[in-house]
Write a structure and sequence with these properties.
The structure holds two protein chains of two kinds. Chain A has eight helices and ten strands. By secondary structure, chain A is of the alpha/beta class. In chain A, the strands form two sheets. A six-stranded mixed sheet of chain A has the order 3-2-1-4-6-5. Chain A is globular. In chain B, helix 4 packs across helix 5, helix 11 packs across helix 17 and helix 13 runs parallel beside helix 14. Chain B is built from 17 helices and 28 strands. Helices cover 28% and strands 29% of the residues of chain B. In chain B, strand 8 and strand 9 form a beta hairpin. Chain B is elongated. By secondary structure, chain B is α/β, with parallel strands linked by helices. The longest helix of chain B is centred in the C-terminal third of the chain and has 20 residues. The chains are: A alpha/beta, B alpha/beta. The interface between A and B is large, with 55 and 60 residues.
């Protein structure tokens, strides 16, 4: 008899988590960030509701500073037509001209991501929001529950988390409260790539190495994606063979020098890699407990 | 994939062992190693301090208040691992339980100098309670006892006996020196008397895990019904296997159907096995909802509404017997209350102690009562259908986890004994329709007088009847009950059960009890079939009852010689929708009895 593999086990667990959301919440949504984890999550979402289309919409919180390749990819996903794609932009932030280049990572992230997310969740009165975060990404994630309770003000209290035993999740909430759900909690970065390869899932081309225009800034390789990029003194744009290990807003996401231009090569590179995944994320570098603080304020 | 937890007191070197294990497995990234070197030097040592790996991964700022398991992931060429780093402190029993519920195996650490501590017993007990059947005992700090084989043996042997007494089936022991890596990633050459594998190798090769339950079970998680062309029951198989074409049973109802189609994650499947998340389509339309269990016809799950169970209490507020909680078992959520705490368990000695309540982190053995029967298994046989959580209805906090042991009231619920002569047969022999007529109202309202007249007239017409009078029952069946709220609840429950049996015997039963609480009357109604229960509200104003005072009870109550008297110092909740509402002030008992008979005439035909 066929023996389920490690990836089969992870897939089954994620599907079980997603179905719990379908069954227990009135207005669930899936946060879609266009990255590899979101893309795997969408794939699992379709599997969980098979043969029906997914019974919930996707929500993309657009900071207006995503890579052009990402937006094109998002629009292709939306065009597939089996699922509704909501896009939310913090219009107040746009009016204020918030930009990662002039306001810095912290302000941009707070206004265009955290505040925007809260606006969107409130507007649609979502009671469950599914996200692609994994526990191996970051140390405050390692402590977060799979069904992570949020107050009506979207606050996360790491000290008041509900114990999670077996696969029995407490989904009871009151009016206005909500839950963030992380079906990929037990996946690692390598699991995600191996699953993408096994399932032949298409991901944003930025993950594959190619010649790209980049600038070296504060030890990171920042890609110049459009004309809004402002060169600092002494900086010059150079063509380098790079790829992205994680995707966010383009001025805040460092590329890595790499030759990996296929899934096999990426997995090979990952296995040999000696550095952690989020080192290219500038927003993670503003203080030891920053992720935890951001999460308490409603960041995913 | 292996999921395991590490336990042992903080000073036993748990963090160091875990750090060393990650290092030896090659799972520390360069930036993490650089940080480790820097931090180790700051502490004044040239050697790497592996305790700092996990401390570094831990949110340091939360130390002292953290009571959570942190999950970490690593892999070798042979296996993937998830390790739950369980806090060692005694007050964190609930985290031990949470961690153990996810684990196939536990690594228990002991300091070679200290030997078995109360904490070793405690952790082993919790592991065993949550169903971990395999433990790796790591005797650490062997360098501090001269790498002595005798010291090692003097710890391992009593530990094996201890673990076996708690139900742990297998113990693999090994001596380690965590900071130096002896028997962690590599076998040590310093302790030639130990011939076995190192920890990493052991973890890579052990056949651990909870044996998969063999009987087919699928708790229905979600009904997938996008349109009228498709109706599937989605869920994760938590035992056995099922094939297309096989006949299955839907519990607790007991309907049967055949599996027409199994929808898998990518394609349709010919069969589904334990652990797979699938969707079953059946060959006929049945009323199936979330919480039902689809099971093998030949081996149905037991169905019951009362259990004996172990509870680990997580709540800040204590557990009080009688209070209602939500109980979540598999995919079912029902109302539950603990009816009795048989004893609590001293987790250090496993001695049973008398207890009236359970406080935070207490473990107790309890009887629990549900508001409807559920399909279940013993926890030892099936974690999914035997493990449950309790949820506080006010705060929605998860306040306990429980492990089902066996059903109480087995005769009534697990296998209802089939009798060939049934209610219909008995009723037919009497030539009547059985019925329960429930008279409620204040003491002295006239319930018994009216019921007596009704019964006389029914008997005269040839009906087979019986009158259950609350006062009379208190001389026998309910002689042990007083008049507190709890006792009144129990009084009504017993009367309802007796009335139910008499209706089953084919009789027309007239019940006269004050039955002051709407909840208990609803319970009584729930014991009968639709149309079989007639509630008669004998509505007499309190002043009138007090004026009549046929038994002199109101006078006594007013004089303070009876307490908990309905209408005086105990409430009466009038029925909102009784079948009959009799106003006694305007009519005599004869007329009221005629009203009741008029109403019953159609029902009795």
């Amino acid at each position: 008899m066929h023996r389920p593999s490690h990836l089969d086990d992870l897939e089954a667990e994620s599907i079980q988590i997603l179905r719990e959301v379908f069954a227990c919440f009135r207005r669930p949504v899936m946060l879609y960030s266009i990255g590899k984890d979101s893309t795997v999550l969408l794939h699992l979402l379709r599997k969980a509701s098979r043969p029906a289309p997914p019974p919930l919409p996707l929500l993309h919180v657009d900071t207006t500073w995503k890579f052009r390749d990402m937006i094109a990819f998002r629009d292709r996903v939306a065009a597939q037509g089996d699922i509704e794609m909501l896009v939310h932009v913090n219009q107040e932030g746009v009016r204020q001209g918030i930009s990662p280049l002039t306001h810095g990572a912290a302000v941009h992230t707070d206004i265009m991501k955290t505040q925007a997310l809260r606006q969107a969740l409130d507007r649609h009165r979502f009671d469950a929001a599914i996200g692609g975060a994994r526990r191996d990404e970051e140390k405050s994630r390692a402590k977060e529950r799979i069904f992570s309770f949020r107050t009506a003000q979207h606050r996360w209290d790491p000290k008041q988390q509900r114990p999670e035993l077996w696969h029995t999740w407490n989904t009871q909430i009151r009016q206005g409260e909500s839950v963030r759900v992380f079906p990929l909690s037990n996946w690692t970065e390598l699991d995600v790539w191996e699953y993408i390869r096994r399932e032949r899932i298409e991901v944003v081309p930025l993950y594959f190495a190619r010649e790209r225009p980049v600038v070296e800034r504060d030890g990171a390789l920042i890609m110049v994606d459009d004309e809004r990029f402002v060169l600092r003194e002494g900086e010059r744009i150079q063509q380098r063979r790079v790829r992205f290990r994680t995707l966010g807003c383009y001025p805040l996401t460092g590329a890595i020098a790499s030759q990996a231009d296929s899934l096999d090569a990426i997995i090979e590179e990952m296995r040999a890699s000696r550095s952690s995944e989020r080192q290219g994320r500038i927003i993670d570098h503003d203080g030891a407990s920053s992720m935890e603080k951001k999460k308490q304020e409603g960041y995913f | 994939m292996l999921r395991f937890i590490t336990c042992g007191s903080v000073d036993d070197g748990k963090s160091t062992l875990l750090g060393r294990l990650l290092y030896d497995a090659g799972m520390l990234a360069d930036d993490q190693l650089d940080a480790l070197r820097r931090d180790s030097r700051k502490r004044g040592g040239e050697a790497l301090d592996f305790a700092l790996v996990t401390d570094g991964l831990d949110a340091e700022r939360e130390q002292g208040i953290t009571i959570d398991v942190a999950w970490r992931y690593f892999h070798t060429a042979r296996r993937s691992f998830i390790v739950g780093d369980c806090p060692g402190h005694e007050q964190y029993t609930r985290n031990m339980a949470t961690g153990a519920s996810q684990a196939d195996l536990a690594v228990v650490l002991v300091d070679a100098r200290k030997g078995l501590l109360p904490q070793t017993r405690r952790h082993t007990y919790i592991c065993a309670l949550l169903g971990i059947r395999r433990i790796v005992l790591a005797v650490n700090k062997m360098d501090l006892v001269g790498l002595d084989a005798d010291v090692y043996a003097s710890i391992v042997e009593p530990y094996r006996a201890l673990a076996a007494s708690m139900g742990v089936e297998a113990v693999d022991a090994l001596p380690v020196v965590a900071p130096d890596g002896d028997n962690v990633g590599l076998r040590s050459t310093r302790m030639p008397w130990y011939q076995g594998p190192g920890l990493l190798e052991l973890l890579e090769t052990l056949e651990a895990g909870v044996a998969s339950p063999e009987r087919f079970r699928l708790p229905v998680q979600w009904v997938n019904r996008p349109d009228q062309h498709f109706r599937g029951y989605a869920g994760t198989v938590c035992g056995g296997r099922v094939e297309v074409g096989e006949e299955v049973l839907v519990q607790p109802g007991g309907q049967r159907a055949r599996v027409e189609r199994i929808v898998g994650p990518s394609t349709d499947l010919a069969q589904a096995v334990t652990g797979q998340a699938v969707t079953l389509c059946l060959d006929r339309e049945l009323d199936i909802s979330r919480g039902d269990v689809i099971a093998a016809v030949a081996q149905p799950a037991a169905v019951a509404d009362q259990f004996g169970c172990h509870l680990v209490w997580f709540g800040d507020q204590p557990l009080l017997p009688g209070r209602g909680y939500l109980l979540q078992l598999g995919t079912a959520t029902v109302n539950a209350r603990v009816t009795a705490i048989k004893h609590k368990i001293d987790v250090n000695t496993q001695a049973p102690l008398a207890a009236r309540r359970l406080e935070l982190n207490d473990v107790g053995y309890c009887n629990i009562d549900l508001d409807r029967p559920l399909p279940f298994e013993r926890y030892a046989d099936n974690r999914t259908l035997g493990g449950f959580v309790l949820i506080d209805r006010q705060s929605n906090a998860t306040v306990a986890c429980g492990m089902l042991d066996f059903a109480l009231r087995r005769a009534a619920n697990i296998h209802w004994q089939h009798t060939d002569v049934d209610k219909a047969t008995r009723a037919q022999a009497k030539g009547q329709q059985p019925l329960c007529v429930w008279f409620t109202g204040l003491s002295g309202a006239g319930k018994s007088t009216i019921a007596n007249l009704v019964e006389r007239k029914l008997a005269a017409q040839g009906f087979h009847t019986y009158l259950l009078d609350g006062d009379n029952l208190r001389h026998g069946l309910n002689v042990d009950l007083g008049f507190t709220a709890e006792a009144r609840v129990e009084n009504v429950r017993r009367v309802a059960e007796v009335a139910h049996l008499m209706v089953d015997a084919g009789l027309v039963v007239l019940v006269c009890v004050i039955s002051p609480f709407a909840g208990e009357r609803a319970f009584a109604r729930g014991r009968f079939a639709e149309g079989e229960f007639v509630e008669v509200f004998v509505d007499t104003p309190l002043a009138e009852c007090e004026r009549r005072d046929p038994k002199g009870l109101y006078a006594k109550a007013r004089a303070g010689r009876i307490s908990n008297f309905t209408g005086i110092d105990s409430p009466y909740e009038p029925p909102a929708s009784a079948e009959l509402h009799l106003h006694t002030g305007e009519q005599r008992a004869e007329q009221l009895a005629e009203q009741v008979l008029d109403y019953l005439r159609d029902r009795l035909a």
